[in-house]
Amino acid sequence: MDFPPTAGRPMSEAEAAAEAKRIIETEFRPQPEAPVRHFPTSFRDESPLPAYGDAPPVKQDDKRIEPAWAAGMAVASIGVGAGSTGLGCAAWLLFRGLSLVSVPGLERFVLIVIAPFAGLAMVLTAGGAAIAEAKSSSTTNVYEGSVVQNTQINNTSHQRGMFSRTRNDVR
What we know:
It is built from 3 helices and 2 strands. It is mostly helical.
């Protein structure tokens, strides 16, 4: 090992301070950090506008959000479908059990038992279709005419005490 020349004797105050400073500078040197990558969060179209006439058309993305009632209708239709599947399984088990019995006139009994379930399913389906039709709407937006761009900006500031307020009215 390579020891400093003071290994056999105690260091003076100046030597100890210089050695401590050297150790601190080499061991606790800050590591270079990775550069921070910045991403744009907004976009401003800086293309020049025509001197006169209509402004060129601009693509407007369709960002519709599904209304809450439509999501509710979807969930309700899944529930009705699952319920009708359960009723169908129950009817199948009922028919399977009744098919083992051979009593004259049993067909009338089965029709009387199943008719209310079929009528209920038919009424629920018709009601759901009527509600869906009543709530459905279509929107057609047709924009005609010239585009006007106003760039009047009113800026008012109020500074009192610790709190300040700035209001920008763009018209």
